[in-house]
Design brief:
Strand order of the largest sheet: 6-7-8-3-9-10
Number of strands: 10
Number of helices: 10
Protein name: ABC transporter ATP-binding protein
Oligomer: single chain
Radius of gyration: 18 Å
GO molecular function, one term: ATP binding
InterPro entries: AAA+_ATPase, ABC_transporter-like_ATP-bd, ABC_transporter-like_CS, P-loop_NTPase
Shape: globular
Bound molecules: adenosine-5'-triphosphate
Order of helices and strands: EEEHEEHEHHHEHEHEEHHH
Keywords: ATP-binding, Nucleotide-binding, Transport
Organism: Sphingomonas cremea
Largest sheet: 6 strands, mixed
Length: 259
């Protein structure tokens, strides 16, 4: 992890009608880190991610990603910046009428229309293999895959354009513990090999302990703390204590020590 800040958020405010989700929220993400983002249900983790990637226009505040101001961008400019990150949405968001390989090819076709088969198939095959899927997954439709394989297919698509930054929204939700641990390892390995920075929303305490360099805690409409879990444990914020020091938090730590 370097000291370079790759995402800067200052004074972010988001609301839906009367409901204020974020107020005066600040956050920095460092290049090369896996930043876990946690918080109770409805604290606005996904809305925060959507604000960073330009899918949600904040009421107020500054969002800078890879040195570029993300707010009020013209579509053409935003498109150029978007190419530099990959996103795995909570439900995978694969096109159900396209095969896995075709799904991976979608962003490549969008940005590089001059790349034709068979090179396109080769690139898709490479991304599919990189995501830990067998080669025969390429011609399959999402409905033919297990939940874990669908996540990997979504990951392959997120990696299609060789991103610097990866956004993952609850990637291990719905996976069994063995599948979740394997996915964690995959992310950590990819981060090392591809020198990625990862913004990872999760409820999974095992994931937090196993692969996150730092964790940001959302509560009271803002990021109330950011640090290693050890640093967070030293704080006396009630939600943080309950989350990391509660029975599940302690079990996750014990499980990690037993690995
Ligand atoms: N497009 C929208 N219109 C209206 N309200 C929305 C919209 N998107 C999100 N919200 C509201 O914003 C709040 C935060 O939602 P968000 O999905 O970011 O929470 P979260 O922290 O990711 O929750 P979870 O852990 O349950 O996934 C919720 O109350 C949600 O209902």
């Amino acid at each position: 992890m370097s000291d370079e800040i790759i995402i800067t958020i200052r004074g972010l405010r988001n609301s839906f009608g009367e409901q204020v989700i974020h107020e005066d929220l600040d956050l920095d993400v460092r290049r090369g880190e896996i930043l876990g983002v946690v918080g109770g249900s409805g604290t606005g983790k996904s809305v925060l991610m959507r604000s960073i990637i330009g899918l949600q226009t904040p009421d107020e505040g500054e969002v800078e990603v890879l040195g570029e101001n993300m707010i009020g961008r013209e579509e053409d400019e935003a498109k150029n910046i978007r190419r530099r990150w990959g996103v795995l949405f909570q439900n995978g968001a694969l096109f159900s009428t396209l095969t896995v390989a075709e799904n991976v090819e979608v962003p490549i076709r969008e940005y590089f229309p001059f790349i034709k088969e068979p090179l396109l198939d080769e690139i898709a095959g490479y991304k599919i293999a990189m995501s830990g899927l067998p080669a025969n997954a390429g011609p399959k439709y999402p409905s033919e895959l297990s939940g874990g394989m669908r996540k990997r297919a979504g990951l392959a698509r997120a990696l299609a354009l060789d991103p610097e930054l990866l956004f993952l929204d609850e990637p291990t939700a719905g996976l069994d513990p063995i599948g979740a641990a394997a996915f964690d390892e995959l992310i950590e390995g990819l981060k090392e090999r591809l020198e990625l920075t990862v913004f990872l929303i999760t409820h999974d305490l095992d994931t937090l302990w196993a692969i996150c360099d730092r964790v940001a805690v959302l509560a009271d409409r803002k990021v109330v703390a950011v640090g290693t879990i050890e640093e967070l444990l030293a704080l006396d914020h009630p939600w943080i204590q309950e989350y990391f020091n509660g029975p599940r938090g302690r079990a996750a730590l014990a499980g990690l020590k037993g690995r």
